[in-house]
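Quick one, T. Sequence first:
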Amino acid sequence: MRPASPAEVRDRTRRHYDERPFGFDQPEILEEKLDRRLMGEAIRATQERDLVLDVGCGAARVARLVARTGGARSIGLDLSMQSLRDARRRTSSPLVQGDNLRLPLRSGCADLVISNGVIHHTPDPAACFRELARVTKPGGTLVVSVYRRWGWYFLVWHSVGAFVRALRRLIGDSGLRVTVFPLFHAALQVFLPLATRRRLFVPVETSWNLFHDQFTTPCISFHSFSELRRWAAEAGLSCEAARPEAARQLATVRLRRRTTA
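Structure tokens:
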């Protein structure tokens, strides 16, 4: 079988998130991200009139966090039009449909650029990283989170995920809803309060979309901290902080773009 082209991968990913938009943004989840994540630290450090760019904005998570801190402006960009429609119901900030392999923005436009769990769903994560670095202002901050290589989710994707994808080919989504999904949904209600240290309940449809995000997304890759640091050095950024997040599912780095002489 002929390998899918980058354009085909892009279209499959767009259709996936148009059909199952990522809305995993309950108030308790937002609080945890603002209080305990590198992206939250970077947002809290923004100044009045700073521009925050969220690449892969989903349902406007970053815009809502920026609004809580006051002062800064935000722009959200996403490939999925349905995700942007959901975001519009949650924020009045500008929203743009675009591809993170070719951002429709001028170089050095943003004081803070955030890409949280997005570039690993593209056919060329390194090229996406270069685009993120390009639109970061000299002296500005870039926060990137990707799936962590050899972490627990890496093993789950290649074992449980492989089983789910094979089962889906046999029984379809309607079959998944009454077989393995109820187990996922029940586990989520137990796991999330432990991981976030907050009491919360995830609605069934939100959980269903998250289930597909975790197990059936058309394109996925896993990356190490050393790989992220290498990309950063090649793009003229220095690493200020690096740590595993989201119950160690993600490798997150906070980077500073060097100022020109």
